[in-house]
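Q: Structure tokens for this one, please.
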Amino acid sequence: MPCNRTQLCGRLETRGALRFSPAGVALIEFTIAHRSEQVEAKAPRKVECVISALAAEGVAEQVAKFAKGCQVKATGFLAKESRSSSVLVLHVQTIELIE
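A: Here is the predicted structure, written as tokens:
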């Protein structure tokens, strides 16, 4: 089952320092705080969450330039934080500033 695509809009809440893997790949860890109202079972539902995210290469360099608190739209895939963890992280493949 190859479908694993996630898109999330929200506020760039935290952002780590740009770092480089042993292979020289730029990486950055950050969080996106999301707030919205969705409809579920024909009723409005307030949704609030903070999602851990990771970006690599050019996307990591892009995120490193964003100001904390800015609004973003991030698209990517979900994966476990590590082999031994069940915590999910959004691996961001594209990100853009939104208003």
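A few notes: The CA atoms of residues 12 and 69 lie 5 Å apart. The chain has a mean pLDDT of 96.
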